[in-house]
Amino acid sequence: MARNSKRGRPVSPLDERHYQAIALLADGRMNYSDIADSVGVTRRTLQRWRQRKDFDRELRKVNAKLVNEWRRTSRERMRLRTAQDMTWYFNAIGTL
């Protein structure tokens, strides 16, 4: 088990509340106070969690997964297969 460098106390592994907070942070629709309330912790506790390396690592993984999913679906939506698709696209961006 890793130790907290400031106090020398063992750091507990991430539990279900941590993963709920990570999902809500990655979603980006709620502020810290709302996320803390929905998870059942104080805002300060949520801020301390953000400073943990393991929490930050998991949050970056979730964010990367969301970005990759968005890129993949965006490429699929923007694939121009026919002349009609191209006409629609150029009309949509205002070049035709």
TrEMBL record:
This is Homeodomain phBC6A51-type domain-containing protein. It comes from the Bacteria. Pfam families: HTH_23. SUPFAM superfamilies: Homeodomain-like.
